[in-house]
C-alpha cells in the first residue's frame, strides 16, 4: 500500500530526486528536554552539530523559522506567561513580540512569507483559542478567526492561512474572510497541525486513527490545496505530528513516537518514497521541528567553480579514448563565507567514466556556507582508440594499388567490439593532386572480418579495373561517430 501511495504522490507532485539534484538542506529547529527543561535546538540537516539556541531555565517551545531562514519565532514563559518571542537563527537577540493577558497564553507561531507578521494561537479575551496576527512593525494585534483556531500555517503566497478549527482543517483568507473546511472524510479521528508545501499546491496534516483514544496512533496525510479527503503518507503504530517541509519541498520532517508513552524523535522522509529516516534522537525527548532555509546574511556572492578537466567550449569538447585513465580536475572557492559543498560527477583527482563510447555530461556543484548553490556543466566524448590503418595503407598520403585487386584496410580498436563497431564503408572518386571529392560517395564493396588473436579488423575493399588511372577515397565509419579516410591511386 505504501509503495502505491508513494508512486501516486510522486506523479502528483513531480518532485526532484534529492540524489540527483541539489537541495538547500538548511537547518531544523526543534524542542528538546535533554537539559532538564524544554529548550530550542537547531541542527544542520547535512551535519551532526546540535546547538542549544535558548539556554534559559524557562520553558521554550514551538520554534518556527521565518521564510528566509534568518529568524526563529518561539514560545517562552521566561517573562511569566507564555508569549511569542523572536530570535536570530543563531539564538542571539531574543525579544518578546506579544504579551499574553492574565490567565491566557500564546502559542503556535507561524511567519508570514514576507516576514513582517506572525500568526499565532491565543486564549486571550474569551479564554477560547483563536488565531491572531501580530504586526512586527508596530506590535498591533488582530484576531483572525471568530471560532476555535490553533496551529496556523501561512500559505507561501501570503493570501491564506490553514489552521486547526477544533479537530478539522480549515483555510481562511489572511484578511479573515472566506473561511471553509479543507478536508472531509467519514473518519472520526480529529485533525490538526497543517503545513503548506513550498509551492502552495498541497498541504500535509495530522489525523488520528478512529481508535486513537486507546492507541494514540496518528498519521500524516496529503491533501491538495483545493481540498479533499486526504491520502495517508505515514503508517505504523506511531503518533506523527508537526510536519515541516525542506526548503526545496522534496522532503518533510516530522515528530514521531511509539504509542502514548514513547519518546518522540524527529524523522525525515522523501515524498518520493515515503521511507522515514531518523534525523534527531535522544538524549531526552526531541519534537516539534521547523525546517528553515539557509540564510544568506551578508554573503550575497555565490561560490566560484574552476573546472579544468574535462572541459568544453562553444567550439570544442574534450575527447578521450575508450578505457583511457583521465583524472577529473576541479576546485571551488568562496571568499566570503567559505565552501560547504564542492562535488562533481566524481571526486576531483579520480578517474572520470570512459568505460563506453558516447558523449557524457560532467557536472560540478558548489554551495557556500550560507547555501548559495552554483552548478557548472560540461561534456566530454569517448571514442575508440584508432591508431590508423596498417600496411600497405599510407596514412595521410596516397596508397598505390592495382585496379581490380582487393585492397586490405587493417586497423585495431584495441579490443573486440564486434563487427557492428564499423557502421559503414563508403568510397568516392577524388582528385589525385588535391584529394578533392569529384563525385558523391557510394557504398564500398568488400568484406569485414575480425582476427581476435591479432586484435585486428580487416576490411578487404573490392575495387574495379575501370578505376585505373584515377584516385578514390575509402572512408570507414565507426559506431563512436568518428570517420577514418585513406586515399588510393589505382594503376593498371
What does this structure look like?
The protein is mainly beta. The protein folds into three domains: 2-292, 6 Propeller (Neuraminidase); 304-383, Sandwich (Immunoglobulin-like); 398-491, Immunoglobulin-like. Helices cover 3% and strands 46% of the residues. The protein contains two helices and 39 strands. The strands form ten sheets. Strands 26-27-31-30-29 form a five-stranded mixed beta sheet, with no helix packed on it. It has a five-stranded mixed beta sheet with strand order 32-39-38-34-35, with no helix packed on it. Mean pLDDT is 90; it is low at 1-22.
What is the domain tally? 3
- Principal-axes geometry comes out as elongated
Structural class of the secondary elements? Answer: mainly beta
Total number of helical segments?
Answer: 2
Average per-residue pLDDT, rounded, comes to 90
Amino acid at each position: 500500500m505504501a509503495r502505491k501511495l508513494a508512486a501516486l504522490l510522486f506523479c502528483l507532485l513531480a518532485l526532484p530526486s534529492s540524489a540527483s539534484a541539489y537541495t538547500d538542506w538548511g537547518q531544523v529547529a526543534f524542542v528538546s528536554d535533554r537539559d532538564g527543561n524544554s529548550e530550542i535546538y537547531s541542527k544542520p540537516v547535512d551535519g551532526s552539530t546540535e546547538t542549544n539556541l535558548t539556554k534559559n531555565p524557562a520553558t521554550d517551545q514551538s520554534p518556527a523559522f521565518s521564510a528566509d531562514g534568518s529568524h526563529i519565532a518561539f514560545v517562552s514563559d521566561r517573562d511569566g506567561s507564555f508569549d511569542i518571542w523572536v530570535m536570530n537563527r543563531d539564538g542571539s537577540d531574543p525579544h518578546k513580540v506579544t504579551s499574553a493577558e492574565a490567565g491566557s497564553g500564546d502559542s503556535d507561531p507561524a511567519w508570514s512569507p514576507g516576514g513582517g507578521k506572525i500568526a499565532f494561537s491565543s486564549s486571550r479575551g474569551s479564554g477560547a483559542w483563536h488565531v491572531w496576527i501580530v504586526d512586527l512593525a508596530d506590535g498591533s494585534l488582530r484576531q483572525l478567526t471568530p471560532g476555535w483556531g490553533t496551529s496556523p500555517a501561512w500559505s507561501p503566497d501570503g493570501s491564506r492561512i490553514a489552521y486547526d478549527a477544533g479537530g478539522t482543517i480549515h483555510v481562511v483568507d489572511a484578511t479573515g474572510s472566506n473561511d471553509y473546511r479543507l478536508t472531509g472524510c467519514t473518519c472520526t479521528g480529529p485533525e490538526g497541525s497543517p503545513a503548506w508545501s513550498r509551492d502552495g499546491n498541497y498541504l500535509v496534516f495530522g489525523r488520528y486513527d478512529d481508535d486513537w483514544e486507546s492507541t494514540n496512533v496518528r498519521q500524516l496525510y496529503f491533501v491538495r490545496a483545493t481540498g479533499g479527503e486526504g491520502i495517508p503518507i505515514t503508517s505504523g503504530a506511531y503518533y506523527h505530528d508537526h510536519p515541516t517541509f525542506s526548503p526545496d519541498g522534496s522532503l518533510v520532517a516530522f515528530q514521531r513516537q511509539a504509542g502514548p508513552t514513547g519518546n518522540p524523535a524527529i524523522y525525515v522522509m522523501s515524498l518520493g518514497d515515503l521511507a522515514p529516516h531518523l534525523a534527531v534522537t535522544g538524549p531526552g525527548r526531541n519534537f516539534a521541528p521547523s525546517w528553515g532555509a539557509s540564510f544568506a546574511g551578508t554573503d550575497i556572492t555565490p561560490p566560484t567553480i574552476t573546472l579544468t578537466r574535462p572541459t568544453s567550449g562553444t567550439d570544442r569538447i574534450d575527447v578521450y579514448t575508450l578505457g583511457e585513465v583521465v583524472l577529473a580536475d576541479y576546485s571551488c572557492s568562496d571568499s566570503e563565507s567559505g565552501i560547504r559543498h564542492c562535488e562533481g560527477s566524481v571526486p576531483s583527482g579520480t578517474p572520470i567514466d570512459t568505460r563506453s563510447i558516447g558523449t557524457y555530461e560532467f557536472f560540478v556543484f558548489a554551495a557556500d556556507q550560507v547555501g548559495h548553490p552554483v552548478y557548472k556543466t560540461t561534456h566530454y566524448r569517448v571514442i575508440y582508440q584508432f591508431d590508423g590503418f596498417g600496411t600497405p595503407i599510407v596514412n595521410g598520403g596516397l596508397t598505390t594499388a592495382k585496379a581490380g585487386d582487393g585492397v586490405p584496410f587493417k586497423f585495431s580498436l584495441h579490443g573486440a567490439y564486434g563487427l557492428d563497431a564499423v557502421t559503414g564503408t563508403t568510397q568516392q572518386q577524388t582528385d589525385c593532386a588535391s584529394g578533392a571529392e569529384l563525385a558523391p560517395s557510394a557504398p564500398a564493396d568488400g568484406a569485414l572480418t575480425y582476427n581476435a588473436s591479432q586484435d585486428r579488423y580487416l576490411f578487404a575493399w573490392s575495387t574495379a579495373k575501370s578505376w585505373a588511372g584515377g584516385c578514390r577515397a575509402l572512408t570507414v565509419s565507426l559506431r563512436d561517430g568518428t570517420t577514418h579516410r585513406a586515399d588510393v591511386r589505382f594503376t593498371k
